[in-house]
Amino acid sequence: MKILRQSLFVLPIVWIFMLSACEKALPVGPSPTGGSSGNNEPPPSNTYILPDIDLSNWKVTLPIPRSDGKPIEVEPPAILDYASDPVLKPFMYNDSSDGSLVFYTYPGASTTNSSYSRTELREQMTPGSNDDNWTFSEGGEIHGLLSVPDISQESDGDYHRTIIMQIHGRLTDAQKNLIGEDDNNAPPVLKIYWRDNRVYVLTKEMKDTTDTYEESLSTDAWTDSPGKYFTRVVGTDTFSLDVIASEGRLEVKLGGNETFVYEGVHMDRWGVFENYFKAGNYLGTKDDGAFAKVKYYELEVSHD
User: Fold this and answer.
1) Which of the residues 138, 140, 231, 301 has the least number of beta carbons within 10 Å of its own beta carbon?
2) pLDDT bracket for residue 15 (50, 70, 90)
């Protein structure tokens, strides 16, 4: 197992190695070394060992803006051509050495309800639509096999963090109208981070469990519960994550050895929301020169 060491001096060397190994161009924008982007194109897609990941029910958000400043999103079926799409290639590409799907990102364009950028997949149960989602009573499971082989450092030497998997809440149109919201956004009930060489889990809980149904729909009704780390130090090693959502219950598994279970009143009350899975690389910094690379070898979702 390799643990990312806290040394500011290794960053340029690591980045040069990453460029050489991946044989791909950096996107337009700041590079991890602070220099200009490279110009090398990745080899043809048929030279890759392709990952066994079906993207038919995923869209991806990129850290680069559209003309209106919002981040570019690519939905199915266009996302299926990521290996040859000039917009997607700098951010989603296949690593020929291990058959992984790589998500690369850096600070750039962000979504309306966030200040951070991402190269992150969003589940679409109906391809091309955000309107078909699932509730905890309906159930959902996600499995990922992944690693975080490269991530930048803060000025104090600590590593930046990135979200590698989520369950995000969503208001129905009826709920949105009931509370007078402008969009369908609801809080993420689950965020799973790569942080400090370990896997960190953060969930939501109600500020006041006596809130009415209508009050519980507001983002302000929810706050972060105390987050916690799994004991395993994953470093740059490959690890598996499994998340199982069911009525009143949320289970998060790291490998076959450690499990966190969340249940009780907060998970019961979360049942008012629709949900969708997210997976990829959601970098939690706006520092100049920051970057992260996340590899997925397996990614599967199922619903009862």
Assistant:
1) 231
2) very low
